Amino acid sequence: MTPFSLTGKTALVTGANTGIGQAIAVSLSNAGAHVIAAGRRSCAETVEAMGAAEETVLDFADPMAARDVFERPIDILVNNAGIIRRNDAVDFTESDWDDVMDVNLKALFFTCQAFGRAAIGRGATGKIVNIASLLSFQGGIRVPSYTASKHGVAGLTKLLANEWAGKGINVNAIAPGYIETNNTEALRNDPDRNSAILERIPAGRWGQPSDIGETAVFLSSQAANYIHGAVLNVDGGWLAR
Ligand code: NAP
């Protein structure tokens, strides 16, 4: 068995119905994991792409929604669910602040907490992979709650790694660059934005959701046993410029 095999492991992926979450679920499944695809709506398409897998409803309209899901043993948690709202800082509304912070940061923390409590309670090891962003490092523009939430994801990843590394729980994050999903369709459809983005990416292409999926396999596997608190850029070189 290679050190990247996930055979015998159970993984839960949030926001697994589409985009990056769907690709992560499929990659983990291809690496041998039994995957629980979690979504606020049906993940049937993802489950079909995986074969032996299951789905569960997790809607972070309630940020504490995952409080009971780790009563059964789950080895790998991928916190992928996320939203974005765009507006000028001077016009940004409280609901656009709260909605984004609730899904991207509060739900992510309390889902990690539920996973960590259960694993520590069982004396089990585990792997958490949080999905951060380039806006965990850069400011962006017109996305104040998204930027604040993703900076928060990077910080929480390090805090949880510090608390749990000694208990055999690896907490890391992936910071995706510009990936082809629903989230970025408007950018790709705008010829000026599209060429400005491509011009700055050393790899010369948009990322595919599977680029993130394969990195999630690595961070979920025993090959990553000594990696704690890392936020790994998977961005075609964007942040290197
Ligand atoms: P996406 O296609 O919009 O997927 C977002 C996922 O989050 C969907 O499954 C969505 O479910 C789910 N979600 C949203 N609100 C939820 C809630 N209240 N409860 C449960 N699930 C909820 O976008 P994506 O690009 O794949 O994004 C996935 C993650 O990657 C996000 O954390 C995003 O910030 C991050 N990211 C993406 C990029 C990029 O270039 N695409 C770059 C950096 C970071 P619904 O389908 O039901 O809305």
Automatic annotation (TrEMBL):
UniProt xrefs under InterPro entries: 2-deoxy-D-gluc_3_DH (IPR011286), NAD(P)-bd_dom_sf (IPR036291), Sc_DH/Rdtase_CS (IPR020904), SDR_fam (IPR002347)
PROSITE patterns to which the protein is assigned, alphabetical: ADH_SHORT
UniProt xrefs under Pfam families: adh_short_C2
Alphabetical keyword list: Oxidoreductase
MF-aspect GO terms: 2-deoxy-D-gluconate 3-dehydrogenase activity; NAD binding
Keyword Oxidoreductase: yes
Domain of life according to the entry: Bacteria
Keyword Transferase listed: no
NCBIfam families for this protein: kduD (TIGR01832)
Family according to the record: Belongs to the short-chain dehydrogenases/reductases (SDR) family.
Name of the protein described by the UniProt record: 2-deoxy-D-gluconate 3-dehydrogenase
Taxonomic classification: Bacteria, Pseudomonadati, Pseudomonadota, Alphaproteobacteria, Rhodobacterales
